[in-house]
Each structure stands twice: as C-alpha cells, then as structure tokens.
Amino acid sequence: MDALQLLADGFAGALTWQNLMWVVIGCLLGTAVGVMPGLGSSMAVALLLPMTFALEPTAAFIMFSGVYFGGLFGDSTMSILMNMPGQASAIASTFEGHKMALDGRAAQALATAAIGAFTGGFIASIVVVFAAPLLAEFSTKFGPAEFFALALFAFVATSSVVTDSPLKGMVSLFLGLGIAVVGVDGVSGAPRFTYDSPNLFDGISLVTVTVAILALGEVIYVACLQRHIAGGRLIRPKGRPWLSGAEFREALPAWLRGTAIGLPFGVVPAGGSEIPTFLAFGLEKKLDARRKNPKFGKGAIRGLAAPEAAGNSTTGMAMGALLALGLPISATAAIMLAAFRQYGLQPGPLLFERSSDLVWALLASFFIAMVVLLILNLPFAMLWAKLLLIPRPMLYAGITVVCALGIYATSGKTFDLLLLLAIGLVGFVMRAADYPLAPLIIGMVLGPLAETSLRDAAMSANGDFGVLFQGPIALSLYALLLLVVAYAVRGRIVARKRERALAEV
C-alpha cells in the first residue's frame, strides 16, 4: 500500500501541465527519431543530454523516459512499412510485420505493434512500481566488494557475451575504461594520461563522449557508408487501424508471453532488448509449428506481437534497475545514468530516500508515456513515416550543428569541440569496423564506480584483494557471471558445429 500511495503522489507531480508537456515532447522526439532508419533513442538522449541542464531534474528525466520508450514505438513503424529496422531491437519485428504489410494488413500490423509495446511497457511499469523499492532496499546490503562484482558483471556481459565478437567487445570496453581514467586522480592527486594539458586535468566529459560516439559518429557513418542503402517501398496503410476481435484474441497470448520473456532481461546487463525480442519471436515460431495451420512466414500476427511486447517490457524494467541499482543494461540507460550524475544524483537507495518526489513522478510518467505513445502511434503512423521525406543532407547537417551547440553550451571551450570531432571520428571508425558502442559507454559510466569500489575494498582489508570474493552477494554475482559466460560459450560452439555441418553438406 505504501507503493500505491507514493505512486499516487507521483501522479500528482507528473500531471502538472509543465511535466505533461515534457512527457509529450519526449514521446514526440523519441518517435520521430525512431522512425528514421539509422538513428535511435540512444542518439536522441545523447543529443538532449547537454541541452537539459537548464531544466529541473524531474522534467528532464520525464522527457528522457519519453524519448527512451518513444524510440521503440517509432522504430517498429519503419520495420513494418519499409522492412528497415533502425535498431537491432526491431529486427525481429520485421520478419512477420513486413509480411503483414505486404499482405495488405499494414494498418493492423501497426496496431499490433503499438498495442504490444503499450502492453509490455505498461505491465513492466506496474512491476517496477513494486519491485524497484525492494531492489533499492536490497542494494543497501551492497558494499565495495559487491559493487565491484556488479560492475564486473556488467562489463563482461555487455562486452563479451552479447556481442558477435568478444574481442571487439573487450576492445570497446577497455577504450571506454581508458577514457574514464583520464584526468587528475581524486585520491592521490596524480595526473593520468593528461599529457600535461590543463584541458584534460578535469578528465573527458561523459557528455562529450556520448554525443560524439552515439550522435556525431553515427551521423558520419550513416552519411558516408549508408547513403546508398535503400529500404523497400514504403507501404501505405489502408483499412481499419484497429484489430478485430479474432485478431485481438490471436495476439493477446503472444503479447503476454513476450512481456514475460522481456521482464527478466530488464535487470540483466545483456545488451538491451535485442535478445528478448528474438527469444519471444523464436518461442512463438515453435508454438506456431505445432498448429494444424502454421502461419509463420505468411504474416503471423503473433510473430509481431511478441517481440514488440518483449522489447518494451525490457525497457520498462531497465528503468527500474537503473533507479534502484544504478545498473545500465544498454547504451541508452548508461546515458541516463550519466544524466543522473550530472545532476548530482546517484541511483540507488539514497535516491529513493532523498529524491522521492523525483523517483515517483518519473515512475508515474511511465504510465502516462505509454498512453501518449499509444495515442500518437495508432492513428498517426503514416504521418510519422513522412519524416523520411526530409532531405538527408539537411538532416545530417542539423544533427551535427545540434551536437556542436550542445557541447559548446555546456563547457564554453573550443577544446571540447575539437575533442567532440576526434571522438566522433573514433566512433565512426568503430561503427565501420563493426565494433559495438555500448561496451564503451558502459565502461566509461561504470569505470569510476569499479575503480572506487576496488580501491575502497582493498583499503578496508589492508591491501588484501581476497575481500572481493567474500560475502554471499558478491559470490552469487560471480557464479551468475560464470553461468552466463558458460551458456554463451556453449551457444557459440553449437553454432560453429552447425556451420561446419552445413558447409560439409
């Protein structure tokens, strides 16, 4: 009952006209960016990060959450209408969603995706309301050893388990860790990797890195290497933009199963919503194969409903893990964690105690965002598709200008603009060479936490690093990490055996 009372207070704060405005703005921006192939919610949040410091924290994070959810809603629109997923989390939706569109059921496919995303996000928000305070209370039992184990789990999971190439994932991670240690050490006062440049004494701003890697680098990559890649013909939805009773009954079990699959991945740093969307699609495909009249491959509504629900339920739970544990499971969540720190806030139990108004207004805004996004996407999907008519040179130039203005506004230093360009080019090279970007961002965000926790644990034990492997929580995290790694290794071995068998055939 305490959670319900606090949520009611959160709605009172979120339903002010100012906060409602920021919810709508966030949903509009997220959907708009999600619709445009090659862009995504991580880019939108990165662009907005330097521009929101003038806002009150509650308003800023309410807008960020709208962008986060809106990116997933918008991405499914292009997956269905043009078979062009803007993010990896929308790939599973293209398989059956685009076939539905080709079959003349584009409007029903868009409705299935919108309702599925709403279902997954809404149920996840309900779970977060009751689970986040419990997770925050549980995190009070964490000491330096436990936080180091948690950071190590996030590092290994995001860099080597969920990437196609563990080596590239680890390179990206260590690059992020290397950027994080630049500057004067807060304990010893020794300069690290500053090359005697006063501009680097304060370190490299996380805002600069996120904007450079996720926005500027992505724009350069898309403009240089993807400008000739064209999607399919834009299918214009016709007919009723809602589901019939039979279609709704067909999709409902898939929505619920997809939501159930996505929820656990919201608290596991496994790269975001890519894995649960594919798992949800695979489950529905196996269940469909048992039917007398299999529909997969012909535009099965369940093949679209499940991934959409799974993706948004993972995102909703990810926000809970971020608030309660300070654990980012994706690049977008890592940027939001950086935003909390820019405002002097540390997610975890202290956030629930000291900034209760912000936390519960943010949780209430999740429900409001789901409703707003449903209203924006059910009847107006074709209007969003018209954003593709924006000339690409104008779009890329506009994003580049926003990147530069945002960074210069936060620091007022020309050096940071040069740094933005240099790191943006690094991001471009990484994208061109197929290096994952999420490990770099998570390494830079969690690197200071891991370093501080390691130092504090060692100092408390007089230099005995064995303290890192004491305590049930730390040991459980290490055991879970070993299981995850073993499962990933087994999957790769099985995949290689299949490839060899197919090659021999």
TrEMBL record:
Keywords: Membrane, Transmembrane, Transmembrane helix. Pfam families: TctA. The chain crosses the membrane at residues 20-39, 46-69, 109-135, 147-163, 169-188, 200-223, 317-340, 360-382, 394-410, 467-489. It comes from the Bacteria. Residues 20-442 form the DUF112 domain. This is Tripartite tricarboxylate transporter permease. It comes from Leucobacter ruminantium.
